[in-house]
Design a protein that fits this description.
By secondary structure, the protein is of the alpha/beta class. The chain has two domains: 150 residues, SPOUT methyltransferase, trefoil knot domain (Alpha/beta knot); 77 residues, Trp Operon Repressor, Chain A, CATH 1.10.1270.20. The chain has eight helices and nine strands. The strands form three sheets. It has a five-stranded parallel β-sheet with strand order 2-1-6-5-7, with helices on both faces. The chain has a two-stranded antiparallel ribbon with strand order 3-4. Strands 8-9 form a two-stranded antiparallel sheet. It starts with a strand and ends with a helix. Bound molecules: S-adenosylmethionine. The site of S-adenosylmethionine has 20 residues, from β5.
Length: 244
């Protein structure tokens, strides 16, 4: 049974389908864990020119997406009632790993992609949330939607080969992941830390936790405010801060 259905409203369905038929997400689709369907508002236009945008009321540069084809397209989607509808916009709530985890608990997620100057304000009414993938402006919502599909899709059981790959990664428990190494043990004068080569799993686990704390303190100290920290973590961090 397909665990997650993504529905994407976009003027450029090929962009979505090309990405979602490749690599890990593509394998998840082929294996039947995910389904990604794209719907083009242009196919729902009633006029002979299939016009999806128009000039803004009040004047100004650029074109604005019209509500009628967008609504007709959205209403044709075979989605679960009450499932999340995400409108892509730089004005939305910043997307976080916690959102990816929350959305992975649903079986249908709909994503609405803007283009040109953006959406007619009345299109916002169909969204349950407005999402931004960062403080910058893209030409369209497709990359933002694909970012969300990728981040959510990889959390769906079966999509990543071994579920253990999710255990220690960045943002899990609110920390960044520590450094990773593979063979060879020595490369251009840089060596793999002795503890990782030793095979003592308790020492490796402790070393990885400490490296995650060091990396988070160095690069994203803001995350430590909300991270799940043990008493041992707090003591380690206190010592680390003293040594700086
Ligand atoms: C050129 S942008 C429109 C920007 C809009 N005029 C504004 O100032 O808010 C076109 C579309 O790209 C998408 N987009 C651009 N930047 C984005 C971001 N940071 N996060 C999510 N979607 C974004 C949205 O769907 C948006 O409607």
């Amino acid at each position: 049974m397909i665990a997650m259905h993504f529905h994407v409203v976009t003027l450029f369905p090929d962009l979505i389908q090309t990405y979602c038929s490749t690599s890990i997400i593509g394998r998840g689709v082929k294996a039947g864990h995910l389904a990604v369907n794209a719907y083009n508002p242009r196919d729902y236009c009633q006029d002979k020119y299939r016009k999806v945008d128009d000039t803004p009321y009040g004047g100004g540069a650029g074109m604005v997406l019209k509500p009628e084809p967008f609504y007709a397209c959205f209403e044709s989607i075979p989605r679960e009632p009450d499932s999340p509808v995400l409108l892509m916009t730089p004005q939305g709530k910043p997307f976080k790993q916690a959102d990816a985890q929350r959305l992975a608990g649903h079986s249908h997620v709909t994503l609405l992609c803007g283009h040109y100057e953006g959406f007619d304000e009345r299109i916002r009414a169909v969204a349950t949330e407005e999402i931004s993938i960062g403080d910058f402006v893209l030409t369209g919502g497709e990359l933002a939607s694909l970012t969300i599909i990728d981040a959510v899709g990889r959390l769906v059981p079966g999509v990543l080969g071994a579920s253990t790959s999710l255990d220690h990664e960045s943002f899990n428990e609110g920390l960044l992941e520590g450094p990773q190494y593979t063979k060879p043990p020595e490369f251009r004068g840089m060596s793999v830390p002795e503890v990782l080569r030793g095979g003592n799993h308790a020492h490796i686990t402790e070393w990885r936790r400490q490296q995650a704390l060091i990396r988070t303190l160095e690069r994203r100290p803001d995350l430590l405010q909300t991270a799940k920290l043990t008493e041992k973590d707090r003591k380690f961090l206190a010592k680390l801060k003293e040594s700086l």
